[in-house]
Specification:
The complex is a heterodimer. Chain A is an alpha+beta fold. Helix content of chain A is 55%, strand content 7%. Chain A has two domains: 75 residues, Glutaredoxin (3-Layer(aba) Sandwich); 163 residues, Glutathione S-transferase Yfyf (Class Pi), Chain A, domain 2 (Up-down Bundle), CATH 1.20.1050.10. The chains are: A alpha+beta, B alpha+beta. Chains A and B meet through β4, α3, α4, α6 and α7 of A and α3 and α4 of B.
């Protein structure tokens, strides 16, 4: 069997998706942790693997795979282990609908807020010249723009407002959908849940007034059910920073209505 | 099982779904709606959240046993699963990954650009009462900009660049093969549906791309595409556009 190597950051957002999918499938892989805050993903060693400089990337033998959601579908199809896509074609459609919605509409709003409160301040302390050099090495123009905005704290007030609107609406949609069935997109645990957990595991920390046991009981039930899975525990144990460690809030048996952050 | 497809003129997402339906021989009741008038928002299931919040914009809706499904690539995957005949995705997992990744880039980068340029050249004419029923705030905002004729020069330039990049990739991908993924697939349907109308709007992008040009001809002649195009109610369906996905908010 060709070996699997995964280049990833924290079990969070895009990096965590193939990490958790591999662990649910029981596929052994070599982990290469890239420090996003040190711009490891734009260094020549990594650009030789993925010229776009996006994380994650997976090596399977000599093949290089990128795009976290597409990697997850590959992991599910290429390896033995429990199926992470439902059998029913309409359920599969629902899994893909939700993954796209989270990847392209809800996720970017979460990350705009996350970057403004976490990534921006964390890298802003660095030497400005070193930072500018690091940004210049980013291959994709839209990622250069995003990093500049995050570092300078330059997200416009209306952009942030729109992101907050989307996060609030997205939370309501997730709560409603999880009221219909045990898992997000079908009656069986699927890639949509893996994707969604990576987006939402820290919701009670980051959005305590919008997501808690009183307001969003279905979301909290769902997050705890995913966190209870051995693969999730093993995956989040790979966290090296305060980012992934926020998952610990799910160990609290009850999370009451929070105060505004 | 009852299947109904609500579709617009055979261009963009309506074209790829119609062609997938025909290629896979899935029986369905076809209902033509005017997406450029906003008629999707007058349908009884328009406020179902997976319809209202579809980020594809004004695309077709497939209703199967009461469940309304949106997003053309994923509807095409569904039709590929339930229909008969040759698969519209490769069987090998790695080639399937390539197909899904290709389609993802098409819907994320190319589709917003094509719809923006298409709506500029062929403005949709919305019905005010139907616009008032749009549940998604951001889709409504895109409609308002387009209905008022407010197009940003930056976004137009960015959109032309995205089309040029897509054609460049298509040309590279077609080296030594007739179809993007080797065999005729959803990637061809989706790429053709967004790019066919761009030849006249961004001619420079296609100028030195012989493989892409002959692939466009080859795809247009495929029976499933030809059958979808024959459903057109306007003389030039490739000039029929409605509001598409949003252009990446991050810049």
């Amino acid at each position: 069997m060709p070996s699997v190597t995964l280049y990833h950051w924290e079990p969070n957002a895009n990096s965590g998706k193939p990490m958790l999918a591999l662990m649910e499938k029981g596929v052994a892989f070599e982990s290469r942790y890239l420090d996003l805050l040190s711009f490891d993903q734009h260094k020549p060693e990594y650009l030789a693997i993925n010229p776009q400089g996006t994380i994650p990337a997976m090596l399977h033998g000599r093949r290089v795979l990128t795009e976290s959601t597409a990697i997850m579908e590959y992991v599910d199809e290429a390896f033995e282990g429990p199926r992470l896509m439902p059998e029913d074609p309409r359920d599969r459609w629902r899994v893909r609908w939700w993954m796209k919605f989270m990847d392209q509409w809800l996720g970017p709003s979460f990350s705009m807020i996350g970057w403004s409160v976490f990534v921006g301040p964390a890298v802003r302390a660095r030497d400005p010249q070193e930072l500018e050099g690091a940004i210049e090495r980013i291959p994709l123009p839209e990622r250069r723009t995003a990093w500049r905005k995050a570092i300078s704290g330059n997200f416009g007030a209306d952009e942030m407002q729109e992101s907050r609107r989307r996060v609030a609406l997205g939370i309501r949609m997730l709560e409603e959908e999880l009221g219909k069935r045990p898992w997000l997109a079908s009656n069986a645990y699927s890639l949509a849940d893996i994707n969604g957990f990576n987006l939402a595991y820290a919701l009670p920390v980051t959005q305590p007034t919008l997501s808690n046991d009183e307001l969003t009981p279905n979301i909290l039930r769902w997050l705890r059910a995913i966190y209870a899975r051995p693969a999730s525990k093993a995956c989040w144990a790979m966290s090296r920073t305060s980012m992934g460690k926020r998952v610990a809030i799910l160990e609290q048996p009850h999370i009451g209505a929070g105060q505004p952050a | 099982m009852t299947t109904t497809l609500y579709h617009g003129e055979p261009n963009g997402p309506s074209l790829s779904v119609l062609a997938a339906l025909f290629a896979k021989g899935v029986p369905a009741d076809l209902r033509h709606i005017d997406l450029a008038r906003g008629e999707r928002h007058g349908l009884p299931f328009a406020k179902d959240s997976l319809v209202a919040m579809s980020i594809e914009g004004e695309g077709p809706v497939l209703v199967v046993d009461g469940e309304a499904m949106t997003d053309s690539v994923f509807i095409a995957c569904y039709l590929d699963d339930v229909g008969s005949g040759p698969g519209l995705r490769p069987a090998d997992p790695y080639e399937r990954w390539e197909t899904m990744r290709w389609c993802r880039q098409m819907i994320e980068r190319t589709a917003p650009a094509a719809a923006y340029l298409g709506c500029r050249a062929n403005p949709p004419k919305p019905d005010a009462a139907l616009l008032g029923r749009i549940a998604s705030v951001d889709l409504r905002a895109r409609w308002d900009e387009i209905a008022a004729g407010r197009f940003s020069e930056d976004k137009l330039a960015d959109s032309r660049a995205k089309i040029a990049q897509a054609v460049e990739k298509t040309e590279d991908q077609l080296a030594g093969r007739d179809w993007l993924m080797g065999e005729f697939s959803i990637a061809d349907l989706e790429s053709y549906a967004w790019l066919a109308g761009m030849v006249r709007l961004v001619p420079a992008a296609f100028a030195t791309k012989p493989r892409t040009k002959s692939w466009l001809e080859r795809t247009k002649a495929q029976p499933a595409i030809a059958r979808a195009l024959a459903l057109a109610r306007t003389p030039d369906p490739a000039a029929s556009w409605s509001v598409g996905p949003e252009i990446n908010r991050w810049g």
